[in-house]
Amino acid sequence: MTTVRKINKISKSKPTIEGAGVHLKRAFGFDQVPLLDPFLLLDDFHSQNPDEYIKGFPWHPHRGIETITYVLKGDVEHGDSMGNKGTISSGDVQWMTAGSGIIHQEMPKGEKDGQMWWFQLWANLPASLKMMEPRYRDVLKKDIPEVTMDDGATIKIICGNVGGRQGPVEDIVIDPQYLDITVPARSTFRHKTKTGHTAFAYVIGGSGYFDPDNGSLTGPENLIIFEDGEQVTVSTEDAPVRFLLISGKPLGEPVAWYGPIVMNTQEELRTAFDEYRQGTFIKHR
Q1: In the chain, where are the structural domains located?
Q2: 202-249 pLDDT, tens per residue?
Q3: Residue 31 φ then ψ, to 5°
Q4: What pTM does this model have?
Q5: What is the pLDDT of residue 16?
């Protein structure tokens, strides 16, 4: 018999300001470590007012993590210490492995009507890969497979495998699955998950039931953290629901985290910031 994942916790994303004055909703962050291991943070940037995002995230460092940027509306211009630069546009994804260290900037540009909507997820790196060479995986919207299931649900596969279709981001140590799922009204969606993996959903539209035994209808900006199990089950009433479903293998390692740098010990953290101040932070160019 398949074990359906129960809801461990439901919480609402919280308004905060980061960067040079960017207004966002934080689904989870520092306070949830290690509950969502290997994931560290999920931010929801959603605004129609350019004053709330246009100043963006000027040059800043990262070490020891991966940052995954998924844009729904608008553009995010980026540049880094390795000389890379470009634009992440609507429907695109950038999977950046900071590794030993990178200094970059992200500057959001909204659509003509001011709409800007994107997500950034931080995933931890194990101690053995903290100091690996930085890399980018830029994925265009056209290269993200979308499948329609027998129950009518549609799934955009950013990372992972669904029904034999593989997402474009592969060979990540935490074995993640990152899906953008829409379940139509008056239907039930079932999706297999790996036991032992952390799994959570973040609702971005509509509402649904995320636990067959829990009568709570869950809507936008809600984070659902699941208990362990083999399957996630989501059902809807008169409206569809759209959500991100993300899972990955926990690292089970200590976390030393301050700002944009995440290491395993406080000593490693101090070293990283000392190197940043001394100009020796970048190991690869």
Answers
A1: 7-278
A2: 999 999 999 988 778 999 999 999 999 999 999 999 999 999 999 999
A3: -65, -15
A4: 0.97
A5: 98
Which of 140, 143, 138 has the alpha carbon at shortest distance from 167?
143
**CA–centroid distance for 176 within its chain:** 10
Helix (H) or strand (E) holding 65: strand 65-73
Q: Which alpha helices (DSSP H) does the chain contain, by range?
A: 266-278
Q: Which tokens in the block code for residue 175?
A: 């074995």
Q: Would strands 165-166 and 161-162 be described as parallel, antiparallel, or unpaired? A: antiparallel
Q: What's the CA gap between 74 and 47, in Å, rounded? A: 10
Residue 81 Cα distances to 74, 134, 251, 258, angstroms: 24, 10, 28, 21
* CATH number for the domain whose boundaries are 7-278: 2.60.120.10
User: What pLDDT, in 10s, does the model give residues 84-98?
Assistant: 899 999 999 999 999
Phi then psi for residue 4, to 5 deg, are -85, 135
